[in-house]
Amino acid sequence: MNPTQDLREVTRWLGSPIVHIHVGSSSQEFAVHRDLICYSSPYFRAALTSGFQETNTGTIELPETNTKIVDLFMGWLYTRELSSTSLETGAWETEAERNVVAENPIERNGEKDDFGDSLKSDEKVKRKIQALMNALENETWKGEAETLFEDAVGKEFLDTLAAQIDKKVDNKIHTSMRRILELYVFADMVQIPAFKNCCIVKYDEFRRSIKKRCDSHDHDDFEMTLESISYTWKNIRDSDLIRVYLLDSISWRSEPSIRDGVIRKRDRRSPVDDLKRYFERVDEDFDS
């Protein structure tokens, strides 16, 4: 089903009654059109049409589920899309730049303002960089700061800031990758293959983004990835195709001595490039 047909199916159900889902220990309430969620999810359809309490009250309780996961699910349910990875990463970079500048205040030595002689030479460079960083809104500092690389102190300072910014963004990406895997587990619970497939695409976008940003054998990066994969292994059935995807993605980023042996054993001749091989079949009668 193409995206246009997909959204047409969604709009079919927008005139139906509203039901409520109470999520997490705080019982945060989410409102959703009854026919839409029943059409999309066999899990919710069973809960709301079984004749039990949920059918009569129009309320479903999910006390063990993270509210952020359901919030993402609701966004997907009505748009059939997850947010843009490139836009998210760009926003995180801007946020990280601002935070790093705020966390690295430049203290002056001496009484004079601006760039008086009482300031040490390295301090003058740092103050100039601070002024450039304060221009983040129009990003003019990015071009002007290139001249500072001619100064050893300026280059070192800029390199330090860049490393801090990269670290913050990388952590954001890894947190999001973990959340996407949690979202996949939720999608499996509510039995929506199309949503699971969308999660794989989103996770792979983040994986490629972090691959470009980090050394392929970065220890901290690899450790965070393994922690997320371990979570998935504990919460998904053995036959689920995301296990194959995760094994393939790990194999192709391992050190050559390990990678070559694993790939030969698994008979994989190319890196993870065709995500459809990891997709579940979508039943268009019940899923969009």
Describe this structure in words.
The chain is mainly α and 288 residues long. The chain has two domains: 1-81, Potassium Channel Kv1.1, Chain A (2-Layer Sandwich); 82-288, no CATH class. It is built from 13 helices and three strands. It has a three-stranded mixed sheet. Helix 5 crosses helix 9, helix 7 (121-133) packs parallel to helix 9 and helix 9 runs antiparallel to helix 10. Mean pLDDT is 77; it is low at 106-120.
The sequence of SSEs as H and E is HEEHHHEHHHHHHHHH
Give the beta-strand count.
Answer: 3
Structural class: mainly alpha
- Spatial gap, N to C terminus: 7 Å
* Uncertain residue ranges: 106-120
| Global mean pLDDT | 77
What coarse outline follows from CA principal-axis ratios?
globular
Sheet-strand content, in percent, reads 5-15%
The domain tally reads 2
Helix content: 55-70%
Number of helices: 13
Radius of gyration based on Cα positions: 25 Å
Biggest sheet: strands, sense, closure? 3 strands, mixed
Q: Which strands sit side by side, in order, in the main sheet?
A: 2-1-3
Pfam families: BTB
Organism: Botrytis hyacinthi
Protein name: BTB domain-containing protein
